[in-house]
Amino acid sequence: MEKVKAKKHLGQHFLKDESVAQNIADTLSLEGYEDVLEIGPGMGVLTKYLLEKPINTYVIEIDTESVEYLGVHYDKLKDKIISQDFLKYDINEVFKGKQLAIIGNFPYNISTQIVFKVLEYKNQIPEFSGMFQKEVAERICEKKGSKAYGILSVLAQAFYDTEYLFTVSEHVFDPPPKVKSGVMRMRRKEDYSLPCSEKLFFTVVKTAFQQRRKTLRNSLKTLNLSDILREDEVFNLRPEQLSVAQFIELTQKIEADGV
C-alpha cells in the first residue's frame, strides 16, 4: 500500500532519517526485560531497528491506516500490533504483569501524558526512552534551580535516572514540526520505592509547583499544615529550589505532621 499520510489531529510527524531511528533503538539496554512496546510506530522507521534486536517487539498505534501499513510491511509484527490508544489502554491485557521497556517517537501533543502513564506502571517498566519536543525532554531531565525544573522533573526523577541524550533537527521529519526534538532515556532506580506516602508525595509536588513563584509556606497552605511545621526553614524556599531528595524529606515531615 501507499505511504501513510500524516494526520495533524494525531500529532503525526514521520521520522525519515534512518540513522536517528537506529540511534533511538540503540538507547535500550535490553536488560531486565524481554519485551518492548513502541508507541506510535507510524510506518515503522524505528520499528525495523527494534525488530533486529533480541527482544519481543510490540507496537501500539491508534491510526488505523498505520496499523494496516504495518501489517502489510512487517511480517515479524504478526499478532503484535495493538490497535489502541495507549493513554486508555491497560498494558496488562498483553503483558500480564511482565517487565517491559517502552520506546517511541512520541506525538508531542500527548507526550507528557505518556510519561505520567509510564509512572503509573513503573513497577513494570524498568526502561523508557524516546523522542519528545526538545523542551519537554529537557524538562524531564532538568535539575533543581532552573525554570524548566518542575512537576515532571521531580516525579520522573523520584523513580528513574533520567538522561538527555541528543537533539534532533526538525528537518528529518515529514512534515517537519515547528520545534526541535530531543531524545531522552529513563532507567528505573534500583530502589525506587519511596520512604513516604507516594500519593502524598505526588500531592505535595503538584501543589507546590502550581504556584511556583510563591514560597512553600504560601503554596502549600491548602494542605492545612501545623504552625510548628510551617516554621521549618524549608518553607522559606520556592519549589524549584528543592531537589528530589528534599521533596521526599518534606513529604515525610508533612506525613509526620498528620496530613
Layout of helices and strands, plus pairs?
Elements: E1 14-15, H1 18-25, E2 35-39, H2 47-50, E3 56-60, H3 64-73, E4 81-82, H4 92-95, E5 100-105, H5 111-120, E6 127-133, H6 134-141, H7 151-159, E7 160-168, E8 173-174, E9 181-188, H8 198-210, H9 216-219, H10 244-256
Parallel strand pairs: 2-3, 2-5, 3-4, 5-6
Antiparallel strand pairs: 1-8, 6-9, 7-9
Binding site for S-adenosyl-L-methionine: 13, 15, 40, 61, 85, 105
Keywords: Cytoplasm, Methyltransferase, RNA-binding, rRNA processing, S-adenosyl-L-methionine, Transferase
InterPro entries: KsgA/Erm, rRNA_Ade_diMease-like_C, rRNA_Ade_methylase_Trfase_N, rRNA_adenine_dimethylase, SAM-dependent_MTases_sf
- Distance between the ends: 59 Å
**Rg result:** 20 Å
Number of domains: 2
Order of helices and strands: EHEHEHEHEHEHHEEEHHH
> Helix fraction?
25-40%
Q: What is the CATH class name of the largest domain? A: Alpha Beta
Q: Tally the helices: what do you get? A: 10
CATH topology of the largest domain: Rossmann fold
Beta percentage is 15-25%
Q: Judging by the overall fold, what is the CATH architecture of the largest domain?
A: 3-Layer(aba) Sandwich
Instruction: Spell out the CATH superfamily of the largest domain.
Output: Vaccinia Virus protein VP39
Poorly predicted tracts of residues: none
Enumerate the strands of the largest sheet in spatial order, edge to edge or round the barrel: 4-3-2-5-6-9-7
Annotation, overall tally of beta strands: 9
